[in-house]
Amino acid sequence: MCYKCGSPSRRSFTRFLAAGAGLTVLSACTPEAPKAVPPSSAAASASPSPAAVTASAGPTAEAATVGQSPEVPSPTPSPSATLARQFSLDDPASPWVIVNKHRPLKPADFVPTDLVRPAVAISAAGEAALLNSTTAAAAEAMFAAAAGDGVAMVLASGYRSYSTQVTTYNGYVAARGQADADTASARPGHSEHQTGWAFDIADGGGACSFQPCFADQPAATWAKANGHRFGFVVRYPWMLHPITGYYYEPWHLRYVGVEAATDMANRGIGTLEEYFGLEAAAGYL
Question: DSSP assignment, residue 63?
Fold first, then answer.
């Protein structure tokens, strides 16, 4: 039975997890159609109009930039429209880039030009210990603040190249078949880790790594409550997989900047898709 079909307790569905390199998700069922679960907040309760989606997810950075007015006025504008127009939703070098099952990276083999190793506790090795320079600086500030509150936080998985994602995804396909693999791992060119804007955290003691019970660990609870102060959101929130395409990952943090992250927190908006007025992306097109 899918956890979304039964008790809301996190521990009740632990047995359904398949551990992965920062992309562990439930594999017991396929995400249902977006219409089955309402948005996470009243501010985004109505689906964006076709005009709003077109304006947000067009093929050019200009058309995809937040604040762009659609040709036909929309009765349900993107919640982010209150922010000044700032960044592209298409450019992988943009902190607002949206990467999901409907929006692959362009180019697919994108590599950040400013990858660095942040000065934080790291359990990952090689490329996985890297982040882009902006995310690294924000992570350093966040980890230090957490430590000041007595919370140990560890960088468990950072940047992941296109070639590494090919290996990771193909491993899932070989072991479980493509349909099941798509519930556990992003297809190559569709992973946020490749942008350098996202990373996975672990608890200082390694408790519940990449498992639902991590949500109750100090590192996860602190990050969820305070991450927005440093520009981070929990990218794949609880029970919003019909929108994001991935089951709850309390360890996966995404940098979008302090202004947007704080606005989302204040409004109770859970997903970037909702915030930027984009369509749900439960499955690949």
Answer: T
